[in-house]
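tool=predict chain=A
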Amino acid sequence: MLDALVIAPHPDDAELGMGGTIALMLSRGMTVGILDLTDGEPTPRGSVEVRARETAAASRELGIGWRENLGLPNRRLRATLAARGALAGVIRRARPRWLFAPHWVDAHPDHVAATRLAEAARFWAKLTKCDLPGEPWHPERVFHYACVHLKTVRRPSFVVDITSTWDAKQRSLACYASQFLPSPDRPGVLERVAAADAWWGSVIGTRCGEPFWCREPIAISGFADLF
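tool=predict ok
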């Protein structure tokens, strides 16, 4: 049983959006898994084999021990009934307390489809009298993380302080060398992510942060949980 299952449209999306939070949860003894929906290929400089090696290396940097790929088609990701059933089966097997998926407003169609799929599969995973494998399971909440394709900055539900794990996030992202090449005339992806992390950290008074959204109410046991 996982505490958190991160649904990523492509390998590297989980690291980009919430790599610091993943490392932070793991450092505190929580169990976290990543499910990549596609292999991310084709890309200009990647291949299925290269991406698999990069993903394994990034997982090691974060300390992830549970990571799978659902094998859905990159660039053509859709929230079909077949895909919903496949994802619901993984949810019933992994039994996560929380699901994480990309923000529902995004310029990348695969990211939007991934979130629609995650929310629908969460509902299906709890069904009885169905042909899904495993026992019914319903994650308590779906939280949404920011992806680099997001063009709209909305007020998040909360921001996680990732100052202590930001270096681990950067090391995991550096593993995706085929995807994040430096640009001589403008900030590259890694520079933009670092700038965003610093900005979100400044919003909450820390060095680095990652924003999250939730469409459902979030419970706390008291104001001691806030800082």
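The first strand starts at residue 4 and ends at 8. The CA atoms of residues 162 and 209 lie 5 Å apart.
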